[in-house]
Design a protein that fits this description.
The chain has 294 residues and is mainly α. Helices cover 58% and strands 1% of the residues. The chain folds into two domains: 2-87, no CATH class; 112-292, no CATH class. The chain has a two-stranded parallel sheet.
Length: 294
């Protein structure tokens, strides 16, 4: 109301246009165009006719009428706009920025996991010192992006970090105690049937394995499968007995690394000293390196 009143009707079209835009009303927008045309006609008529002449007075009188009508029009529009605003649902802040930030943080964690996995392959001593894959150890300085060492992490942390059920976490613990630990991440899927392949693929990039003490001592074979009479061929024979060629079949594509190890192929990044292997089995360097091959 104040704009049309104090502007002597010159600003009426502005307020009517704003109200029509807020209400999405075509009629009010057309009325705003009419007020603008009347304003242009008033300015042109006042300059065209002599002062106090009949045409001049008619132009001024018409403008005064339009001015008063415009004040009433703006008052009605103010009421309608307030009513429309009260009836409109509250504006909910967009979650797009928060979602974008969450996606960026998830991508950053995935990148940190990849970097930590490369460190495990290239420098396992440093990786062990940095406690990679051990969320159960407090005050770690290295952020590995959420990796979990299934050979050492307790069941509650397996359940939380890998988002598995308590039964699945207990099965992982049971299998690793029976077998002395897992040699590759793929063995979790092979020996823990409660974890389905589709579920394992979702958590696969969070799983790593550091060899347990039992694995380092004897390549973690079941009782009764180690060759009698130790000697030079005991560890390789144990490996071969545990992984005969016919057994090396993958339930997922990611299990191909273990297949390469069982068939005696060289690992891509060996970091243990090479030793001559007896005929029929892979070298010790290949065996231990393949623990980190996935």
């Amino acid at each position: 109301m104040l704009v049309p009143f104090f502007s002597a009707g010159l600003g009426t079209f502005v307020m009517v246009f704003y109200g029509g835009f807020r209400l999405r009303s075509r009629g009010h927008l057309i009325a705003a165009a009419g007020y603008l045309v009347a304003l242009i006609g008033y300015i042109g008529g006042v300059g065209m006719f002599p002062i106090d002449s009949a045409p001049h007075n008619a132009v001024v009188g018409t403008h005064v009428v339009i001015w008063l009508v415009g004040i009433g029009h703006v008052l009605v529009l103010q009421h309608l706009v307030r009513k429309h605003a009260d009836a409109a649902p509250p504006v909910v802040p967009s979650a797009a920025p928060a979602n974008a930030m969450a996606l960026a943080m998830a991508a950053a964690r995935a990148q940190r996991r990849r970097e930590a996995q490369q460190l495990v392959l290239q420098n396992p001593v440093a990786a062990l010192e940095l406690k990679i894959g051990r969320p159960d150890i407090p005050n770690r300085q290295y952020d590995d992006g959420g990796l979990v060492d299934v050979n050492h992490v307790p069941a509650p942390w397996l359940q939380e970090a890998l988002e598995v059920t308590p039964e699945q976490a207990e099965q992982i613990i049971t299998v690793r105690e029976q077998r002395g630990g897992f040699l590759t991440a793929g063995e979790v899927l092979v020996h823990c049937p409660s974890i389905q392949p589709a579920r394992f693929e979702l958590i696969r990039d969070r799983v790593i394995v550091f060899p347990s003490d039992r694995l380092l001592k004897g390549i973690a074979v079941e009782p009764g499968t180690r060759a009698a009479g130790a000697g030079k061929r005991s560890r390789v024979a144990a490996w071969s007995s545990r992984y005969p060629e016919g057994e090396v079949q993958s339930r997922t594509a990611g299990y191909r690394a273990r297949r390469s190890c069982a068939l005696g192929k060289k690992a891509s990044t060996p970091y243990f000293p090479k030793r001559k292997a007896p005929t029929g089995g892979p070298s010790s360097a290949t065996q231990l390196t393949c623990m980190f091959a996935e």
